[in-house]
Amino acid sequence: MEISKSHWYSQLYVQVLIGIVIGAAIGYFMPDIGAKLQPFADGFIKLIKMLLAPIIFGTVVVGIAKMGSIKEVGRIGVKALIYFEILSTIALVVGLIVVNIVKPGAGMNINASALDGSAVSKYSQAASEQGGTIDFFLNIIPHTFIGAFSNGVMLQVILLSVLMGVALVQMGETSKPLINTIDLFLQGLFKIVAMVMRLAPIGAGAGMAFTIGKYGIGTLLSLGQLLVALYITTLIFIVVVLGTVARWSGMPLMQFLRYFKDEILITLGTCSTEAVLPRMMVKLEKLGCKKSVVGMVLPTGYTFNADGTCIYLTMAAIFIAQATNTPLTFVDQMILLGVFLLTSKGSAGVAGAGFVTLAATLTTIHSIPLVGLVLLLGIDRFLNEARAVTNLIGNGIGTIAIAKWDNSFDVEACEREIAAMKHEKAQRKMLLAQK
Predict the structure, then answer these.
(1) DSSP class of residue 48?
(2) Which of the listed residues 19, 230, 294, 352 has the most CB atoms within 10 Å of its CB?
(3) Positive or negative: CA dihedral 234, 238, 244, 245
């Protein structure tokens, strides 16, 4: 590998980190300006989102078509769903245990009837529009083939991708020209992603400036106990649960975090895991995960394996109950846990997905006052940073784990990629020292 003689500040993660620090400073010292910078962050995310549907479609189609076996597609899908359900359940239980031990809402003694629920009306409306389980599965089927792409609904795109991939497998040798064309088109899309990612420092910095400028540090202090509890809980989950899975997979957690540091920082600044999905797919393939596994598992995990969101859901719900002095029995909490196992799977692609899912659940069970969501509005953006980063790490490690489970993970390729990363880092340090 040829080592670039570039300066340290040319590295993407350094630029993103600088952008986040500058954005935080603008938001704190010039909050009016900071609050107006959100369009820059939104623009960056939209540039990535416009590429997601064709990238997912192309990756899944090419991956399945090159498998040559429909049974292999079904096997990977079943393993992915089993893994997602187990990890999501663990995340929900971890959040439930910690919030009952720490009790961040205890002592607030807030009268629910005195809260103004108008601020959460749009979330409760979005929650009601989500419908039930049957509607969720029916919505996976797009109205038209093109509609799935124009609306950017990930599960619809995955469904069409799987169907097309299976169809090309059945066509045999005659499908090769089309497969090669889609593969070539996919390479062009990834070149566009590389161009767009140059704007990542601006997007991350603008997102951080907006967050602090609009909501302020004071908001953090007022509900700091819940914020700290969530961040500590997600850290414990990442280190203990995901760390254990990572070790079993042959990719130690610290190596994973160092390898994906760019994507983690971008997610932290933009609160969007979708902004780095294309890069995650490319880098997971470089690490030795089979292309077909990455194409099927990672995008699907964005819907079914939101570990950070699961932790947030149980902690936020119990926090509202504690703050409003709403008594919950053990049975009540188990019912809440069961409902979250279903509702946490249907929030992908919805603006403020975690908040909408929480609203949908509280609307369903009625034991916790929906109006209590007002308490979370001010810090939801900060809470979203923790859950987005956890979701990203969880899906990355999950993809490697499922590839390992399916014997589709090349450990030697992973070791070579990590060794190359370490060598490049050492060479860069040596070049900087010489300067």
Answers:
(1) H
(2) 230
(3) positive
- The answer to whether 96 touches 333, Cβ cutoff 8 Å, is yes
The pLDDT tens digits for 235-268 are 999 999 999 999 999 889 999 999 998 889 888 8
Domain segments of the chain as ranges: 8-73+82-434
Say if CB 394 and CB 308 are below 8 A apart: yes
Residue 346: CB atoms within 10 A of its CB come to 23
Q: Which CATH number fits domain 8-73+82-434: 3.20.70.20, 3.30.450.40, 1.10.3860.10, 2.40.50.90?
A: 1.10.3860.10
Reported as a single tens digit per residue, the pLDDT across 174-209 is: 888 888 898 888 888 888 888 888 888 888 888 888
Of residues 327, 403, 374, 356, the one with CA closest to residue 115: 374
Question: Residues with Cβ < 8 Å from 219, sequence gap 6 or more?
Answer: 378, 379, 382
Q: 289 — phi, psi (to 5°)? A: -75, 135
What is the 8-class DSSP label of residue 287?
A: T
DSSP conformation class of 4: P
Place of tokens 């070790």: 247
Name the residue with tokens 């400036």: 209
34 in Cβ contact with 212 (< 8 Å) = yes
Rounded Cα distance between 320 and 2, Å, is 55
Q: Give the pair of three-digit tokens for residue 205.
A: 């910095």
